[in-house]
Amino acid sequence: MVKCPRCGKEVSSRPGTICPRCGLNVSEVNSKIRCPEPNCRALVSKKLEYCPKCGCKLKGYKLNELMRLARNKIDEVFYDDKE
Ligand SMILES: [Zn+2]
Ligand SMILES: [Zn+2]
What we know:
- This protein has one domain (2-82).
- It has two helices and four strands.
- It has helices at residues 26-30, 63-82; strands at residues 2-3, 10-11, 32-34, 43-45.
- The chain has a two-stranded antiparallel sheet. A two-stranded antiparallel ribbon has the order 3-4.
- A hairpin with an 8-residue loop joins strand 3 (32-34) and strand 4 (43-45).
């Protein structure tokens, strides 16, 4: 159980839970993401724009950007092998 951040009612922490008292989407507000910084990896609230631990930007770090970074890494390895 988690507490609704708006009205304080105890609600289920399962994904998609809506607070029965105030209608807030509790799971969305409470959901956490991992800081994309490899040295940090702190669990931070999705609502925050910057990581409170390392200060890096959290928003705008989309999946396709991560894919691109991963691909760059693969390219680096590839070129290393070639030379
Ligand atoms: Zn509520
Ligand atoms: Zn961080």
